[in-house]
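Much of our argument rests on the idea that a fold can be written as discrete symbols. Part of our work consisted of pairing the sequence of a single chain with a tokenised description of its backbone. We regard such an encoding as a compact summary of how the chain folds. The amino acid sequence and the backbone structure tokens for this protein are reproduced below.
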Amino acid sequence: MIRAFIQLTLLVGLLLGGTGAHAFEPENQMQFADALYARGLYDLALDEYLLISREAGDFPRMDVVLYRIGESHRRLQSPQAAERFYLRLQREHPSSAYAERAAFRRAEVLLTLGRPGDALPLFEALLKDESLAPALVAPSLYYYGDAARQLGRTDTASDAFASVIEQHADSPFAAYAALDLAQLLQADPARHDEVLPLLQSVNAAPPTEAVALEGLFREADWHFRQGDYEAAVVLYDRLLRDHPDSRRAREARLQAAWSRHHTGAFAESAALASAALDEEPAIEQAAEWWYVLANAQRQLLRADDARASYQRVKDLAPDSDWARIAVYEMAVVAFRQDDFDQAIEAARQIEPDPALRQDLYWLLAESYASIGRHDEAVQYYRRLIDAAPDGEYAPRALYRLGRVLQQRQDHAQAARTFRSLADQFPDHDLAPQALMSAALSMALQGEHEGAVSDWRRLLAEYSEAEMVGEARYQLALTKLQMGESDAARDAFDDYIEQHPGGVWAAEAHYRLGILWQEADEAAQAEQAFRAALDAEPENRLAERVQYRLAVTLHEQEKDAEAAALLQELLTSATRETLPLPLIEWLTRYRLAASAYAEAEEAAAFFVARADTAAWRQIAHALLGQAHRGQQHIEAAITAFEASKAEDARTREGIEATWLLGEIQLQQGDLEQATANLEDAARQASADELVDVRARSYFALGRASEKQDDPRQAARYFLAVALLFDDPDFVPEAMHRAAQALDAQGRVEEQQRTLAELAERYPNWTTP
């Protein structure tokens, strides 16, 4: 319809062309101008109104003409021209019904032109006029507040906006006032609690689509600024969903992405960033988007992608704040990937401005420490401490500096550093641990008195600290190292009393047991070792305790339990520490009890551990006896031959030769048996081996019997009878000698031998 009207207007112009504008009567021309104005054709209407104002000066409705000219200029974005006609109306027609509206529009235009100082008194005058049209009160009050706001008169502005809200709640200007008042109150921390209700009131019933959009943006922005990112996410989502093509939506995307990031929705944050970057934003904004994306990737454990994105930030805007922060984040990512060389390389590119200096020094110090470059680590820990001696990092830096000094073997300086932490930050969580570390540094340096002093300070000042138990235990150990046995026993007793179920309870009992053992107090030692086992120590300690307890029980002749403990230790992780004499005792104890399987286990271990020819000869001999006891004859022969082959002269080696001969005799290998038995008899010439020699002779007699050599048999049996006096085998030797003599027809010698047998062993009977 508007198009048709335009065509009609053009036709009218053609029909009247050449006749002059006065061809229209002023009244008709006014009707024509009003029709154009009503249809929004302000440029055409303006021409007609201007003709009337120039050529019909006495037109009775000139006030309306001037007002419409002003309005047309205003709507055509010519506010300066509009202001002139509003002012002309006011001056030339002060009593006009349009004068008040013109005054309002003029003030509004002046405000639009950025002249709040000129607009403010005009709105103030309007508001003082009690006859002001009700429809103009709310907008005048609102614009009055806006002018005051622009002039920095925030109290006046706040009061005006509050009045609009309270007195004109049904006016659309109430929503505008609420938005602007909320904006003002954001600058006053004391009134922050009023901001959100104002914004929520706007969003509850926005008067226009534009207000709805602005209110949503402002409320989301407020939540974002307050760190309430969960609420911000909800509002930003609505804004982006309901107004995707708006200016505010474009402005909000970045904060929406940050809000997602801050709520842990890193995947969604990354998606928003990627979508924004696909649109190729301006370099500065692109740098921040890449930074958002990099942060999200880092949180999603996509470390390589994050490092690449941080690099894009640096490449896009190398001199920007985002680039500086991105390089730092690259260093952090590299550090968390244990790529300490890369972390150092990145960190050294950063100018250490105050905002990042402490973080940067910490990262460099930790990176250098992690790759063992102790001097550089010390340098940056000290820089950090010097830069902020009372700062957040200072106690941690002192502690880590102490640890690096320990690793550098500078224990004295480490101890001083740890003590500095405890002195300067006595309430810090690391203070008791620092004293603990100082004491350990002193102990490592051999400064036992200093260590004791630090431990005692820890116990006195931090009696509730987690490490007081360890401190008590270490104090006892140090006293032990200082050779103060009585003080050490007291300290171990104190630890056990204060921490009966403590981590070091088993160790403390074990150490006490050793101290009692060294003091020749076997019963006390046994009690301590049993208490150590009751404390359920870890395996290696349990085995050491078992060994010590076994020794103590052995000393007290509690051999059965001692043997059981030692037998168990043969398969333990600490079996290599068992002394050879104790293994030998265990083997002999098992052989004596005819526990041949256990004896074999002990002897086999003995063989494996024996480290000299003599020990090997004894071990093989005992292993052979264990095999023989189980009737493992071939294994016994192998063991006895191994014993005999050793270049040593021990009783066990000679016994092995005799026993080897015995086995061969039983197997019928008379030649080899005779050779071994003669060898054993020859080697057993010493008094302590008399029993071996006697048994070797007896066995040789039996070998002679098997060879049908009664003469030689009689010789060996008589040698046993004449040289030895053992009721276990001498009577039988005499009996066998008599038989051998009889076989030779030597009756007289036979009778004398039997008579002597009866005299020496009257209770002996023939088996």
Q: What stands out?
A: Residues 430 and 496 are 26 Å apart (CA to CA). Residues 134-150 form the longest helix (17 residues). The radius of gyration is 55 Å.
